[in-house]
Amino acid sequence: MSEPVQRPERVRVTAPQSAAGPGTTYPVAREMAEQSDVGELFVRSLIRSQLRLAVVVASGFLVILVGIPVLFSVFPVIHSWTVASVPVPWLLLGFGIYPVVIGCAVLYVRSAGRIEQRFRDLVDDQ
Fold it and tell me: Whole-model pTM?
């Protein structure tokens, strides 16, 4: 009679555990320095955010700027109003626009600073 066949003992083969596993990610700063696709993606995202902010602020300023002549044409009685013998439309155009320009500039600078700070935080965190 033949002897029963012994099956070899099962051995589990695994890769050695190391700190650099397959899911290793590189810091964003390194990706940008190497000009990889990921780094380019982050920079394009920053530029898109800044462009979007510029378009929003510029379009808001343009709406306000176009709104003043529309206001004058819708309410022509404004032309007859005066303050200290100065017509109100002149006051609105002379003194009303500058606070709007300064306000838009301040809004843009603060928002652009926030966007850049978020980008810096993203780059520094990794």
Answer: 0.64
